Amino acid sequence: MMSNRRRMMMSHRRILSLWLFIYSSFIIKDAAAFSTTVKQQTVIPPGILGPPEPLKSLEVGHTLNAFRLAVDDDDDSDPQKVDFSIERVANSPNIFILRNFLTASECKQIQALAEDGGMKTAETITKGDTSSRKNCSVAWIPSSGPGGSSLVSGLVASTANIFLSDMVKSHPSVCVEDMQILKYDVGGEFVHHQDGDARVLTVIYYINGVGGTWFPLADRNDGDLPKNKAGVIKLVENFEPGKHGIFVKGDSSNSEQEESNSKYTVLVNKGDAVAFYNYKDEGSAQLDWAALHCGSPTDETKWIANHWYRLNELSNY
Q1: Is the pTM of this model over 0.85?
Q2: Across residues 153-172, what is the average pLDDT?
Q3: What is the dihedral of CA 14, 15, 20, 21, to 10 degrees?
Q4: Which of 11, 84, 182, 281 has the fewest beta carbons under 10 Å from its own?
């Protein structure tokens, strides 16, 4: 016989599932009061740069069920309902796994968009830097606008409405960068870095199920973190994936999730995604160095895609 507590939990989950039905477009509305001036210093209020409810209250290891409407670039039929789930895997920084977020067809189309558009040797934000990211090629696909992909713009609408607070979505300086699609060949990697640079939210889509995203400082409870890149790089130089932080490890066979996931390792499959926040949310508007991450060396071809949501107001801090 089902207990009252279980009935309440199931009812609560259904309500959350309905709340997370994503259908609206990512629309920039009139800006609400976003920042206040205190003694000539602009301050962003707390609770804005992180996840909105109910994700904010979701505990590590807990999951919400949701669905979205997907538009197929190669099919003029009605949008397809895609069921997926959202699991919190860390509190510091806020990291969430979206399971079964992309369909197999969408993964195939994203890869085709990159190949059809032509791929070039990947660099970083430092012009000409090909040493930080190795054995990697890149393509950029417009996230919106005329001639863009309805698939890509649909992903923008879904992820923005799930992960951005109303005040961020309504701010005039918010925008999303073009989708970055990356192909890592064997031995490919991207060294430790923090996305930052006004990028408040990062979403990484796992196109072929090969992961390797490592957050060495996630949910670390051993004192305050250094406040600069040099300090955190030195701190993690002897850390190991699977033993420190959170290691998002791909399962390219697309098999069932293993029950043996350790607290340091999370398995993902083809079509899954990870979303994480790059700024502290306590009102300081400072980079969160717990969001330091890398793309670990891969022993097989890896396809991923990225969306970065920018709040250009943060460049003033």
Answers
A1: yes
A2: 96
A3: 70
A4: 11
Reported as a pLDDT band with limits 50, 70 and 90, residue 304 is very high
Q: Work out the pLDDT band at 14, boundaries 50, 70, 90.
A: very low
CA atoms of 243 and 294, how far apart (whole Å) = 15
Report whether the peptide linkage leading into residue 54 is cis, meaning its omega lies within 30 degrees of zero: yes
Nearest alpha-carbon partner for 177 in 137, 127, 142: 142
Q: Three-class SS string for the chain?
A: CCCHHHHHHHHHHHHHHHHCCECCCCCCCCCCCCCEEECCEEECCCCCCCCCCCCCCCCCCCEEEEEEEECCCCCCCCCEEEEEEEEEEECCCCEEEEECCCCHHHHHHHHHHHHHHCCEECCCCCCCCCCCEEEEEEEEECCCCCCCCHHHHHHHHHHHHHHCCHHHHCCCCEEECCEEEEEEEEEEEEEEECCCCCEEEEEEEECCCCCCEEECCCCCCCCCCCCCHHHHHHHCCCCCECCECEEEEECCCCCCCCCCCCCCEEEECCCCEEEEECECCCCCCCECHHHCEEECCCCCCEEEEEEEEEEHHHHHC
